[in-house]
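Data availability (excerpt). The following record was deposited with the supplementary files.
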Amino acid sequence: MQSPFLLAVRLYWGWQLVQSGWGKLHHLDKVTEFFTSLDLPAPGTMAVLISCLELFGGIFLAIGLLSRLTALALTVNMIMAYVTADREALHSIFSDPDKFYAAAPYTFLIASLIVLIFGPGKISVDALLKRMFVPPEVKELRLTG
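Predicted structure:
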């Protein structure tokens, strides 16, 4: 059941990230204004980078391509979202966990961590590429070594 679960996590949260990134790209002025209010450096550039990370990271996450690298980038992004935009929720992780769980980055962070820790599963482009291009002797070394 691990691979179907990982597929469901990747598809659902990948799609949510795609929608978030797409929305941000179509409203860069508002995202830049928000990032400016947070005193982020180069808010216009950051708005484009974060929007693209969410859009393309969501696509990669959904199809299971470069999954752990993508999940790492998204995990860092969501932690930084807590630090910069949801600091109160972050500080309440132990004193008021409901506030931490209710913050916007939470579910994206958990989905990213699941894929980062467990990988994309057998139903992914990564697994397909591994089956196609990793020689059997290398696979055997990994199993025994």
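Summary of structural features: The CA atoms of residues 127 and 134 lie 10 Å apart.
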